[in-house]
Amino acid sequence: MNKMLILVVEDDAPIRNLITTTLKAHDYNYLSATLGETAILQASSHNPDVVLLDLGLPDMDGIEVIKKIRTWSNLPIIVISARSEDTDKIDALDAGADDYLTKPFSVEELLARLRVTQRRLAAAENQGAMQREFINGALRIDYVAGCAYLGEKELHLTPIEYKILCLLAKNVGRVLTHTFITQKIWGSSWDNDIASLRVFMATLRKKLDEGGDAPSYIQTHIGVGYRMQKL
Ligand code: CA
Predict the structure, then answer these.
(1) 47 Cα: distance to centroid of ligand 1 (angstroms)
(2) Residue 81 C-alpha to ligand 1 middle, in angstroms?
(3) HSE on the CB side for 61, CA within 13 Å?
(4) What's the gap in Å between 83 CA and the centre of ligand 1?
(5) Residue 228: Cβ-neighbour burial (10 angstroms; 0-12, 13-18, 19+)
């Protein structure tokens, strides 16, 4: 069932070997590249299901690789970056990356990210039939009526909370940066907007997690943004 094709782009041999060995052990198919230029070529010729992309490549910035791939494809891109490259991580997400892994990462973390992506791909495949509504665990958004429900109960959301919820739902499984969200909701991303976003997120999350022991729908990525988890 794991027969996804993963393109691994990493110039650091020990990390690349760790990744490819893990993929092999878990029955994923893979290709690997050490240069941005090669990665772009392989992405276009082999049409992989996921790209794992190091940001610091010898010939070009990984962010340029994302931008190039995004001119023709929406395929999931998971960025691999060092902890010191926090702003790069945000730039990468804004350029169209779906998720990130911070070095050093564990094999379990890598596999978890791939599973998230796999679920997101499966959800995207079903989306054609689900244009009118979105369902994730007990959460249901009726796009036609403009209402959201948790189980049988209607959620009483403000218009902004509803907009944020729809944006997160549309991108379920993806980490959205503060800038991305505020641009979509308010059309700007001043510090004030980001501060407001925090407040709206807190109230939205409270309403979503009212059920109590259910897992949280919205994950906070401190200093980066938010993600709706695919339950
Ligand atoms: Ca590197």
Answers:
(1) 23
(2) 8
(3) 9
(4) 13
(5) buried
